[in-house]
Task: structure prediction
Amino acid sequence: MAIVDLLGTGLGLLASESDITPQWVEGVMRGSGNLEDGVTVTAVSTERIGEGVGILSILQRVIPTYSGATKAPKSFVVKYPTDDATQRFTADALVLYIRELVFYRDCATSAPFKTAKCYGQAMEGDNTNFTIAMEDIGHYRGLNQLEGVNLDESKNLLEKLADYHAMWWNSPKLAGMQDVFQPLLNPTYEAVLPMLWTQGWPNVEQYAGHLLPDSVRGIGAIWADKVSWMLGNLMTPTTLCHGDYRADNIMFDAKEPVVIDFQLVGVGSGMYDVGYFISQSISTEVRRGHDQELVDTYLDRLETHGITIDRAEMWRQYLVAICFCVTYGVTTFGGFAEQNERGQQLLQDMLLRALYCVADNDALKVIS
Result:
């Protein structure tokens, strides 16, 4: 087993909660320069966090007891691979874990939004077992995916997204980063996503068919064959996409956004992130009638960075992106029957939010 220590802090890998010992925690704090000589960790308690939000990794809050006064944090968060075999297969197939580690190492400190401070991270050199130890930012105000984001905060978040994209806009550095930060159009997505769609859509028709907007019912029959085309249309202008820019991955420190979860960072058009955020994180009632306004907020901010925009093309890409992003509601319907009543309602709500975004903007015409 070859452990690659990405930050040089001597971090040991976690396989389960039982590995979070006082000795392990003391190593993390001392290796990251946060624990003074003569102070030790005498005990540790943990609590699972993020259940129902993050499914590809285990997240736990670690609360150390120290032997004396210290500047070391009162708590921190650890992240390591899921113990669910199906989700672990997905994470490995899509090469997700290494993306987050490299982002924290190489990109986080220059990002225009706040991120959690990283105390240490490592990955095995011969597989994808990994561990990240990072700042506990649970005291910031979180957003809720299902409640949705209001218009003012959505505009704030889209402006911050534009600042982030502007840093990488058509950057020559991106070509050398795609081994880790994969392009949106890649062979794995082309093979896997149509399969997941065709598995999920029959359940959509069975359990939610009576709720679908009539104007977009035809998406079920054409979406899978359009995956390569849609992703190909979301590849330029090129930037570094967050890939999972949604309410559950965003907090606020007063009015300043704090962004987490960088496992889906990839290279492609920034309009993917824009369409994903608007169609997934704003309720239909709040979003309806404001799509153009929200997209223009993002584009206006890009222009303040000296970037020249083809607004007609960006709007077309927005329509492509919201059609593509219906997949998140559809693929989760594969397990609809196993959900309790509340879980089924949540799946329906997220699916309909995406489909009504497509319907309200007559977006299906761009992929038909």
User: Anything to note?
Assistant: The chain has two domains: 3-135, 141-366.
